[in-house]
Amino acid sequence: MTWENWAGTATADPARRYWPRTAEAIADAVRDAAAAGLTVRALGSGHSFTPAAATAGAAIDLSNWTGIVSVEEGLPDTLASPSGSHRGVRGVAPPSGTVTVRSGTTLRALNADLDALGLAMPNMGDIDAQTISGAISTGTHGTGAGLGGIATQVAALELVMADGSIVKVSADDAPDLFAAAQVSIGALGVISTVTLRCVPAFRLAADERPMPLDEVLDRFDELAAGNDHFEFFWFPYGRNALVKRNNRIVVSDKGGDGGGLPGPMPEWRRFWEYEVMENAAFGALCRTGRAVPSLARPLSKLAAATLSARSYSAESHRVFVTPRRVRFVETEYAVPRPAVVEVLAGLRAAVSRLSQPVMFPVEVRVAAADDIWLSTAYGRDTAYIAIHQYRGMPHEEYFAAFESIAASVGGRPHWGKMHKLGAARLGELYPRFADFLRVRDQADPQRRFANPYLEQILGS
């Protein structure tokens, strides 16, 4: 059975495929593959644009290994809000705590289960189809100047190692293996469970509106620092950006929200905005631009011109997540936050020189520095710049130009998005890269979990 990722940028024909339902079955699969001399990769939702999960050896499909294992309450609510303003959304907030979840659980299912418990993830990106293990392994993140990526929420991991043993790691137990495994691209073993630090469920007040791109760039530091979650989208050839500001709602002890906040978005408008405009209509524009490339630039300007303002409030995961049904290819680089204006100026100039048009917007987000060895935000406050192209349209020239611009400021590529960097250059970009390789040598000396993509980024 041929495996293909969501974007259609990677395929594979595994020699063997396993569908475990227990951690012990994952371990049995690893041992069985080793006995056959096969390499092993875990399969999640296929939302990496790279061939990170592809293998000609043994594929361990985690789609039957899902759900919450346990909840431990009573831990301090230290991740509730970068501003410290959040106090809960149901009058009396439930305690924060850690939640242990099976690695094949999608973020969508996890959000629903957490909400039923009165809990939430402190931050996440705008797609929830990924598995929790795939999301942390590739360094998936959301946005927020005071918040880190999803891997910073991890309190502990359970790993199935190359010899089939099952180990639990945390900052206290096997700290080096834990620091490496939080973002590991599956190079150290198969994650069987993830223990996450969660916070009381909360609502977000969302404000989305067009703003001149020049104004956004002039006010970038102010907008990033002044909002719990800030990002913007810019359509190449357009003058405006869509600025998204999401802030956590403060709830009084009596359950009030202080007044003056937007209400929920009516379901008819949610359907119109997200399903009709952002998916059906935008997909039609993209198909037209792909069929008639000379129309791509004016159609992209049209898409930018139709950006509308909206303010509403909802549960955090309903605000964070946006349906993405129009398929695309993507590369993303993490750059030092002070360099974001310089990089975008270079990108704007590069777009004007492209011989082939671009249909999809550029997305810009922010994150706080962290200490995870292979996190793209390791050691520095970060801006993320993601560029996209509609699937089936030429992207090579565009992506190469952007990679060159990002390289000039020490940009680090997202592990799950298309890039061409190899181990030599990546070793220069990550201060703890050699430490990661040392732990990998100890954990998987025979490279049981290798594949061509890992050879590219980590070496053989």
Short characterization:
With 460 residues, the chain is α+β, with helices and mostly antiparallel strands. The protein has 14 helices and 19 strands. The two termini are 28 Å apart.
Please, could you describe this protein's structure?
This protein is α+β, with helices and mostly antiparallel strands and 460 residues long. It has a domain at 203-413: FAD-linked oxidases, C-terminal domain (Vanillyl-alcohol Oxidase, Chain A, domain 3, 3-Layer(aba) Sandwich). It contains 14 helices and 19 strands. It has helices at 23-35, 107-116, 132-137, 175-181, 213-218, 220-225, 267-291, 296-305, 316-320, 340-353, 396-407, 423-429, 433-443, 452-458; strands spanning 3-4, 11-12, 16-18, 40-43, 58-61, 68-75, 96-102, 119-120, 154-160, 166-170, 190-200, 203-212, 229-234, 240-248, 310-315, 328-336, 362-367, 382-390, 412-413. The strands form four sheets. The chain has an eight-stranded antiparallel beta sheet with strand order 15-12-14-13-17-18-16-19. Strands 6, 7, 8, 9, 10 and 11 form a six-stranded antiparallel beta sheet that branches. Strands 3-5-4 form a three-stranded parallel beta sheet, with helices on one face. A hairpin with a 6-residue loop joins strand 1 and strand 2. The two termini are 28 Å apart. Mean pLDDT is 92; it is low at 75-94 and 252-256.
